Every structure is written in C-alpha cells, then in structure tokens.
Amino acid sequence: MKNRGIWKSRSVTTSDLMLGSRETGFQQRRLDWADDGAAVRETAAMRQKNRTKRRSPKTVLRLPDLDHSKSSVLQSLGSAASQRTYRFAIDDFISWYCSEPRLAFGRTVVLRYRYYLESRQLAPATINLRLAAVRRLAYEASDNGLLSPDLAAGIRRVKGAKRLGMRLGNWLTPTQGKELLRVPDRDSVKGKRNYALLAMLLGCGLRRSELTRLTVSHLQQRDDHWAIIDLFGKGGHVRTVPVPAWVKVAVDTWLAIAGIETGIIFRCVSRTGQVWGNRLSEKAVWWVVREYAKLAGIDNLAPHDLRRTCARLCHSSGGELEQIQFLLGHRSVETTERYLGSRQRLVQAVNDHLGIEPQGGSS
After folding, report:
1. 326-336 average pLDDT score
2. This prediction's pTM
3. Domain count across the chain
4. CB distance 59 to 106 below 8 Å
5. Is there a single domain that holds both residue 84 and residue 109?
C-alpha cells in the first residue's frame, strides 16, 4: 500500500510537471508571438514614416526651386566672368519659363525655349551658351531632389543650334589703327592713360579683363625684351605676352605722370586730372574705345576688335601662326585662324579679276 501510494504520488507529480512545462511553453510562445507582432507593427510604422518623409521629385519647378538651383549653379563656377554669364542666361530662362504655361521642366520645354531663342535671331554661339546654362540648372535641380532624373536626362539630350558658316568679325587696317592712336590728347593725364590703354590693346592683343588686372610687376624683361610675365587669361590659362617698345614707352609715360609704382596700372582719372581708385572697370574700357572710335570716324568698334586687329596685323607682317596663338593665349589654333580670317581673303579676293569687268572702272 505504501509503495502504491508512493508510486501514485510520484505519477501525479510527473504529470503535473509535464502540464506545467506545456503551459510554460505556450506562454513563452505567446510572448514570442506578441514580440513578433510588435516588431512587425514597428517596422510597418517606420516604413510608413519614411514614406511620408520621402518626397517624390517634381516635374514643375516653382520660382523658389529655380532660385535655389540657380544659386547652386553659380556657386559651382569659379570664374567671375562665368558666373556673370550664367546668371544672365539663367535669369533669361526663368523669366521666359514663368511667363509660359506651367509645363513640366523637361525636354519639350527646353526645345520650346531653343525655338524662342532662334526666333530672336540670336547667334548660334549665344543660343548654345544659354542652353548650356539650362542644362546645368537641370543637373543641380536633379541633384538637390527637386527634379526627376529622367527629366534631367531628357534635357541633356536637347541639341544645340548648328553653326552655318563663320562670322568673320571686325578689325582695323594699319591706317585706321594709326588714326585711332592719334585721337587721345597726350598732353593731359587722362589722354596719356587712354593712349597707353589703346596701345596695350592694339600692340599686345589683351582682353578687357586682362587689361584691367594688369599690374606693374607683370612688366619684366626676358631676353632683353619687355614682356608681360605670367598673365592669367581666360579659363586660368597662363601665358607670356611680348610688349613692343612703343607700347612700353606709352605705359611708362602714364605711370610717371600718375605716380604709380606698384599695383594696378590702369586706374580712374577725375575731370581735374587726379588719379583715384584701385582699378579701371571693364565697362570703362569699353566706353573709352567706343568714344575714341567715334572721334576717329570708325563705327561699331569694340575692345575685342582691337585684339583681332593685333592678330591680323601680326599675320600680315609675316608672323607665324603658332607665335600668334601664343600671343593671344588660344588653346586651339582654329580659334586663332578665325581671328585671322586666313581661310578667306578679302584683299585680292578670288572674284576681283574675273575678266568681265567694264572698261574704265566701275559702271
């Protein structure tokens, strides 16, 4: 009896243990299921939160978005001249884009803008520059998440305007160059400065930006010849420019009367003949050339035409094409050839003597 009781008690204890372990297992599973459900709900909540924060790229850009992309474009440019050019081009596009119906900023809109530029009879180079600024604007908008990458890729595929023919440009003959140099009053302070300015443009073929940044330390002697050493030109291109003797005399005369020993060479001059300011602006150089050209009887003359004149006079006097390229600081010799117009001769042209000319000159 005692053994049976002991066995019975033992069997009961074993079953109780088995039931308890089962209940404990069920409870553990319930807890695990609850934890899994909470984790699933938390993951779903996080995904929903990320979806709400994530913004889909826009197709129509508003004025604040365009201004933000424009600032990004200008900050990515290192040259002040490039910033000025791109700012003008982007402002022109924004004013046109905001005046049109609000279409998606994509390939179709940029094509319409190109047709608009062509209707204004702009040069192909100008149109291509405007389109390059628009493409840069689309890239920055896409990088900032303001524009769909597909639309930006479509804008990239817009082709520029074709160049049909070649614009020959304007230049002066040696006689016209002498007449222009005779105009400044070389007895006055301003006249001496303007004569030296014109001499530097005609004799050295400098750009306006290079002329206004020219310093006294740039003028040095190399091989017993005066030259402008380490001149930073367009695109950061560094070159050395020989200075003719008559140009150096004109510059020295101006420096002596202005009392300039260091720093910028060309500075402002008041009506009373007082030299002031740090440097002469590029716009002032443009006005000086325009005013003296009118007094010399030359119409529509720009400072860059004097640079082109320098190249053509060097070529006509027997200068080598490679040396003229070094003088002007062109990376491509084709650019120098366009300055020279060497592919087409206007003097002794091919149609001057056809054999059908009327007797006694022109009829």
Report:
1. 86
2. 0.68
3. 3
4. yes
5. yes
